[in-house]
Amino acid sequence: MKVKEVQDNLYSVITQQRKFEQPLPNIQQPPAHNTAYRFWHCERCQSYMCKPTQHCTFCRKCFHFKDHHCFFLGACVLRQNMGNFILFCFYTSLTCLYSLCVLGPYMYENINHIVKSDADYFNIFLNFCFPIALARLLHSKDSSSILLVTIFDMLMSILCICLVLGIWKLHSCLTGKQHYVNVTGKQNLKEIFGNYGLSNIIFPYNGLIGTRDINGKYELKEV
Questions:
Q1: Which three-class secondary structure string do you get for 158-177?
Q2: Domain range for residue 197?
Q3: Number of domains present in the structure of the chain
Q4: Strands 75-78 and 66-70: what pairing?
Q5: Is 113 inside any structural domain?
């Protein structure tokens, strides 16, 4: 039994080493004598993994170049889907902004009788702060206004969180804090978003269903 486990572990090491020894396209590789490969044994997966690899307790498997586990997506954000995660944050922000524009006139009609005509901007702002707005609206016993203010605050919170997180991840990828390969800024954009770069925000074809290979090989992703 132990001999079988040793053979499986050796096969896993050889497979991982061959996988990461394959050169990346259009990227200058360092000399062979300076290349060092490090492996570690994951006790939960019972196999050897090439660093940098982290084990996700929620997905119950190891991932290479893992960033974090997203509970809203129900999956880990990796190098392969970082561009999709940034686009997801931007699209969510735009959706919340559109919903706020649609919700604005209805909120104005429903809480106009609560806000005094001579109120300053600070008092008007307090009517949109959830704890204060909830107390005032409960006192006025207006259930429709309570629902509108709750939806407004939720949309504003999601808008701010997704927009800040998306811009922060994009800035980290472009400034070098989260570079996965030693390439220029333009090449790194292709590595994250695909061949179209930032234009994938408008037309996310290459970034969503195709690989982000900078040579333009449109192959379906392995799920």
A1: HHHHHHHHHHHHHHHHHHCC
A2: 84-210
A3: 1
A4: antiparallel
A5: yes
Whether 183 maps to a domain, the answer reads yes
- For 27, the token pair is 């990227």
Give Cβ neighbours of residue 5 (< 8 Å, ≥ 6 apart).
46
Tell whether 138 is covered by a domain: yes
- Write down the residue that tokens 């009609």 correspond to: 109
Of the candidates 85, 75, 79, 4, the residue with the CA atom closest to the CA atom of residue 46: 4
> pTM above 0.85?
no
Over the stretch 123-136, which tens digit does the pLDDT of each residue have?
Answer: 666 666 666 666 66
**20-37: b (≥16 Cβ within 10 Å) or e:** eeeeeeeeeeeeeeeeee
Residues of the chain with pLDDT under 70: 1-52, 54, 57, 64-66, 110-145, 176-223
Q: What residues contact 18, with CB distance under 8 A and at least 6 apart?
A: none
